[in-house]
Amino acid sequence: MRALTCALPLLLLVTGSGCSAGTSAAVEDAGSGGPPDAGADLAAPLPPVASGCIDSVTAGDHVYTCDGLRVDATIPATCLAPGCGLIVELHGDTGTGLLMDGHTNLRALARQNGYVVIAPTGPPFGNPYPGSTWTPTEDAKILAMTRLVASVFRVDSKRIHLTGFSRGGFVTWRLLCDAADLFASVAPAAAGDGSSFGEVTCFGNGRAPKRQADILFLLGRTDMSVLYSTMASIRDAAIAQYGAANKQVLTGDASYTHNRWTSPQGAVIETFDHAYETVADGPFGSARGHCFPGSKTDPYAVQYAVPCKAPSAFTWGDEVMKFFLAHPMK
Length: 330
Hints:
By secondary structure, the chain is of the alpha/beta class. It is built from six helices and ten strands, in the order E-E-E-H-H-E-H-E-H-E-E-H-E-E-E-H. It has a single domain, classed as Alpha/Beta hydrolase fold, catalytic domain (Rossmann fold, 3-Layer(aba) Sandwich), CATH 3.40.50. It has helices at 97-104, 106-113, 139-152, 167-178, 228-242, 316-326, and strands at residues 60-66, 69-75, 85-90, 115-120, 160-165, 185-189, 214-220, 245-253, 256-262, 268-274. A hairpin with a 5-residue loop joins strand 9 (256-262) and strand 10. 49% of the residues are buried.
């Protein structure tokens, strides 16, 4: 057994919130520029053009600095032409964009499926803990960088998606309310109704999205960082707001259930409700159900070591990718 190397932080018992609108230009679906040179292949699309903090537009992995935030981006070669999708993934407290992606594997999955991925890192969490966090101040920055990346790489405006875990999950809920016109579907994880401790999210206090974006939601039954009751509360409020009914149990066993509700307008809310937990002797063992099912990251790592103990019947990152593929904006 390894000795614990760091104490469990708030691990995303979030505080404070607010709403801000992004200031960047609207997403464009096509590039701009002059006519092609004589003899050029008229069928070949114009390449993307660098703009603002997006200072490199080649295929591959990039690190941008947007509004003072590090943004790890993956640009598949196919996405140099217009029409790819875009996924934004948000880490939780003490995490980073790359640590978040270590749990979801979305950058690798996106290369296979024609999606640009950006994984921004928030401001420092603060001593004595490593890594980063999110505050309401970054809401507008996240929206602005999303719109800028979408514009530069001319992504399909109907395939822009957002996912986040814990603190990043609370931000995901909040941005669903604030920017439902931007995100086709969202996948919050390990985040619920934060009104009791000042975290404004969605589906409460008169807040609701202007359109019914499809939702995939991960809830840990024994989550000790974000209580299951707060997650069940926001789930039930979303179902009520959408007028969703006809609950279906899609798959499940004693350790998890995959459910779906459908609204009269055709929007869906799906949940993965699980009993998986972190390893007991890892640095975040006391978080218990606050974990990523199927993550292959090191459960004993000093930082952001919140994979669920194997085995698990599903992998959260795979389910997020499948959901986004199946749920473009209607």
